[in-house]
Amino acid sequence: MKVNMLFADRVIRLVASFVYLILYFTGVIHPGIGLWLMPVAVVFFITSYTGFCPLYALLGVGAGKKNRMAH
Fold this sequence. Notes:
Number of domains: 1
Largest sheet: none
Number of strands: 0
Number of helices: 3
Helix content: 55-70%
Low-confidence stretches: 67-71
């Protein structure tokens, strides 16, 4: 896998996943809604750790890619 995420994007996703987990485990987020959002937090954590986002690859965007809309 080739890294296709910028450093800032990785940090934002990592912080968002930790904030979600803190809010979930402290009871701020309703448990029913929290279980639906848990996969999102897990995906954010994994993509920030690996630096690879499958959605970015599918859409052809990300770090190191030229803007395809300009052509």
